[in-house]
Amino acid sequence: MPRPETLERFIARVEQNAHAEALEEFYTVNATMRENQKEPRVGRELLVANERKVLARAKTVRSECIRPVFVNDNHVVIRWTFEFDWLDGTFTRMEELAYQRWEGERVAEERFFYDPVQLTPTRRNP
Length: 126
Known about the structure:
single chain; alpha+beta; 7-stranded mixed beta sheet; globular
């Protein structure tokens, strides 16, 4: 079970848009991450590489935790909003729930729940 201060440090790193760094600092070596019903990605190195690949396509990212955060023993649920200004001039805003299983002070398993329609980039209104 993560200590409250560990969870707050994790949330702060994500809100600082240090997504890849948060993975390196707070996930187990063999962590898994799954998007909705897709197959999980396995291993922290792969998770970090995937995160860096996505972020490389963004001009700016804004990440926010919408509280409260729900904690029950080793399970944590966090509601996030993310706003991406992409290099191609499009914009994506998405909201998701992250369901995590922690092993001590690190995330071992994470699954995201969101409407995939949100992933369709749009043009900003002038």
